[in-house]
Amino acid sequence: MRRLGRRGSDDHLSDYDRHRLLNRRLEFTSRVLPWAFLIAAIALSTIVVLLPADTGMFRWVWPSVVAVSSIAFSLYWLGRSRLGVSESQTTELVVLTTQVVVWGVLLACLALVLFPILDPGNELVLTSTLMGGIAVGVFPTLMFRGFTLIWIGLVGLGLAGGFWTEPEPSRYVLIGVLVIFVGSLYSGTLLLANLFERRLRAELVAEDERDLVELLLNDLEDGAQDWLWETDSRGIASTVSYRFAEQVGLPAAQIRGRTMHEILIGIGASRTDAGRKSLDLLTANFQAGTAFRDLTMQVVVRGDTRWWSMSGHPASGDGADYGWRGVGSDITHSYHQRQNILRLAEVDSLTGLRNRYSFNSQLSSRLRDGRRVWLAILDLDNFKSINDRLGHHVGDDVLRDVASRLHSVLRSNEICGRLGGDEFAIAFDDSAFDDSAFDDIASADEVEERFQTILDSFERPFSLVGNQIRIRASLGYGSMPDDADSLEDLVIVADLALYHAKESGRNQIRAFDATLRDRATGRARALLDLRRALIDEEFELVYQPQVSAATGVVVGFEALLRWNHPTSGLVSPGDFISVAEETGLIVPIGAGVLRAACTAATTWPEDIRVAVNVSQVQLRSSRYVESVRQTLNEVNLHPSRLEIEVTESLVIDDADRDVLVQLSALGIAIAMDDFGTGFSSVASLARLPLDRLKIDRAFVAPLDADPSNSRFAVLRAVIAIAKSLGLDTVAEGVETERQRAIVTECGCDVIQGYLEGMPIRAAEIPDYLNERPGGPSRLGVAATTE
């Protein structure tokens, strides 16, 4: 914004500001000049006409000239100031100059002509009148110092000429008085001119600032969604702003005179229940005279649905009456954003089902109604392997398809949500069944049947990445008030039932029973004990020998993990390994087992190997291969003397295979434990870097019976497969001479079992080797965490 200075000089001003200031001076002059000179003309003409002296034709000629010039100049300036008729500034300055000169000459002539013929009394009247005329003429020319000087000079010279006709002593006195008067008048004029100049400049600055504010306000109004509204004490719109009329979609004339209630009804505010409630609240506030804020309502303007927020407060009127003033806002955009946020807060963005928060909220409302409610938690059995093998984008497609299947079988009174990951929840209440036939036995059957229907929806394969993929799920459920007395407890019991379903073989449905809570408590207690056992070093290893089936020479030791519990005594791995795997404690436990076994092996003959059983959790832990390499280096055990055993059912992913390949590259032997009980195929065996197959005891135990049974045939087939792949075989659980004879006859390489030796501590191994026929073996040893 341009800033006008406050100094008298215009040198520092821009051409635009100089033009504005000159125009403002001319405006002031045009308003004052006609009236000042018109009054002076009337006064002087009257005096001239009424003078008793004989002035001849001057008595009529001078007033006529004054009258004509006065009327002409007055009409020009009145047209400029009142009618808006404005010439260029140069023309106006020329006219002003002409008027000042003409009138100055006329008044000077008046003095020069009349003073010589008037008596002293009339001279005094004329002198007073002319000096007053000088003062009157100064005020209209105040804004132009040059014109003021011309005016004073012309009239002053005329008076001085008149005074010069007086007798010699008095003329000097009169001229001296005139000089003092003119000097004082001009000095006062300069002071007054400076004050007016500053005022003009201040006005222009204020106008600039006002224009800027109005510009900003106009810009804000153009982009804003707010408007003002006002009613009288009866609620009738008395003043209708342009913005309000624009928002309503009607001319202001059609809005004025109607109540706010009628205006809002006219644009559809009463079409919905929420809108009617808002209108009722608005009416109640009007009647009670209380202010209100952010009253939201839906309206229809020009066929477009909009959302308004209304705020208002009573305003004092004349007397005891009160009107209303307020602000309305179009919040359509923010309303839709808020609704979208609320929707996102309640809906799972991936599947479109309810999220955990929304599902729990719906379930809570049913529980508050006192209904009997069943809650089931469903978990996909093989989802992690799909994610790992096919990628997370395929996993997302699976979750969306699962959600679609669940939604397709839902009944109207059932709710379904995604709790997170691949875990879903389904709930319904007793309105799903016929109350007339509802008893405890019927309800259990009907509920189980309903959940089975849900699981059956997964029987049809899923079409993903061009393949038909079968997806199984496990489901656990509980009910309230039978199994739980709160929502949190109901979720816990359903989760415990789901865990039981997975333990039972997956793709199962299990209902909650009280024993599950006891088992969960036991697992929690076991977890605490396991943490303490790690700190107190309560774990120890025992070693079971493996011997050559052909020679009976010890070829390895398998290390078995035992837990010396301070109160429960010796605990086998089967009772705590699953808890350790679930909690991740198997990683530090396994690291301790590996170090202890490798350290013990360094005290054995160099041709005896040790094997350590590794879980899938360990294989997938970060830097597992590096930790094995580091352990071997620290205890100074050659990698060829270590054998890693993995359970067949766990080696199902490429990630596991990559870790095994890296271990094999170090020179470590890889054995598949419990072969025949898992899901491996011959093709999967060929993909893995295996050195040895360990045949599960389930194939060995029946061999004491007729060797022609199917177990015998399977044993032969397994050994034949291993030989075709170049793998050694180990028969586990050999306890009788007959079993040893049969597995040896079938071609098995190594025997392990009670027949060859019970598990023994590391300190007992040297004596055991010395007592074996032939002395210490020169062939190798193995160890594990089973």
From TrEMBL:
The chain crosses the membrane at residues 32-53, 59-79, 100-118, 149-165, 171-193. The keyword Transmembrane applies. CDD domains: EAL, GGDEF. It comes from Rhodococcus erythropolis (strain PR4 / NBRC 100887). Keywords: Membrane, Transmembrane, Transmembrane helix. Residues 523-773 form the EAL domain. SMART domains: EAL (SM00052), GGDEF (SM00267). Residues 371-514 form the GGDEF domain. This is Conserved hypothetical membrane protein.
